[in-house]
UniProtKB/TrEMBL annotation:
Subcellular location: Cell membrane
Keywords: Cell membrane, Membrane, Transmembrane, Transmembrane helix, Transport
Family, as annotated: Belongs to the binding-protein-dependent transport system permease family.
Statement: the UniProt record of this protein carries the keyword Transport: yes
Function, as annotated: Probably part of an ABC transporter complex. Probably responsible for the translocation of the substrate across the membrane.
Primary location class: membrane
One record GO biological process: alkanesulfonate transmembrane transport
Pfam entry (one): BPD_transp_1
Protein name stated in the entry: Bicarbonate transport system permease protein CmpB
Keyword Amino-acid biosynthesis: no
Length: 301
């Protein structure tokens, strides 16, 4: 009878030990799962530079709006006259009215369509032509002098010739947009081809690569950074050319909308058209940069 408690005591002591082992095994599992604060801190460290750039950009835009508001409210005249410049609130009121106007939306869509056609044609022609000119000396010697003569001609100077060359205003405007973006794309592609390391070309030739493979595996990837630089610059010049063509010979488009607002002395609409051009140009350039990051993931952002 006296031995019974001695037999039961080890079993009672074993239960806390088993519980302690279970808690010890669960502790590393809980520690291996990062908390929300840890994940947020890691995300912040990875995106700190990007967040800093966004914050600085937002502050600069806010400061620009404040300065614009003060200059137009008090109608400052200091070399530059702000007596007739619309205030940000007036431009916002014009935007709130225009966004519900189907005609304004049609102006935006037509300009975007012209940019799409003209810029796409310039990229389809300019990039392969630049690659071929960079690879074959004879082709370069034949085409480069002609391109250098035509390249400095501004888009406005092409308007009368484009009207004579093409049967409709729409085709002439697309042609001017094509010319504006074609030469930056061509020149930057040529520059990229000239910087290809010849050691890589000789290595590919020693390994038995044919001309098509050298183009695909050596020249084209090495030239991609300069090609996308040309595409980005070409997109900006395409917008400049488009707006000039729409102001002179167009009947629709955001350039025509801006010039018509000036003719009707609607100052708020002039500023609205200019801001719309800037936003559309920024958005199209961001699309090209995003495509470049997808095509060239090895490049630092």
């Amino acid at each position: 009878m006296s031995s019974s408690p001695a037999i039961l005591r080890p079993q009672e002591d074993a239960m806390p030990a088993a519980t302690a082992v279970t808690e010890t095994e669960a502790a590393p599992a809980a520690a291996s799962t990062p908390s929300f604060a840890a994940r947020a801190g890691r995300w912040y460290r990875l995106n700190r530079d990007r967040l800093r750039a966004i914050a600085i950009g937002a502050i600069s835009l806010a400061a620009f709006l404040v300065v614009w508001h003060l200059l137009t409210t008090y109608r400052i005249v200091f070399f530059v006259r702000f007596t007739n410049v619309p205030s940000p609130l007036a431009v916002y009121a014009s935007f709130a009215k225009a966004i519900h106007d189907p005609k304004f939306l049609m102006h935006l869509l037509l300009s975007c369509r012209r940019i799409l056609f003209g810029f796409s044609l310039a990229a389809i022609v300019g990039v392969p032509l630049g690659l071929i000119m960079g690879r074959f000396k004879l082709v370069h010697e034949m085409i480069f002098p002609v391109a250098e003569v035509l390249r400095p001609i501004p888009a406005i100077a092409w308007v009368p010739m484009a009207i004579m060359l093409w049967p409709t205003n729409e085709q002439s405007i697309v042609f001017i947009t094509f010319l504006g973006s074609f030469f930056p794309i061509l020149i930057n592609t040529l520059h990229g081809m000239s910087l290809v390391d010849p050691v890589l070309v000789r290595a590919a030739q020693c390994l038995g690569a044919r001309e098509r493979s050298i183009f695909r595996e050596v020249y084209f990837p090495a030239s991609l950074p300069h090609i996308f630089t040309g595409l980005t610059v070409g997109m900006g010049v395409a917008w400049v050319s488009l707006i000039a063509a729409e102001m002179i010979s167009g009947q629709y488009g955001i350039g025509y909308f801006t010039w018509e607002a000036y003719s009707l002395v609607q100052y708020a609409d002039i500023a609205l058209g200019m801001i719309a051009i800037g936003v559309l140009g920024l958005g199209s350039s961001l699309l090209i940069r995003s495509a470049g990051r997808l095509v060239m993931p090895w490049r630092p952002t």
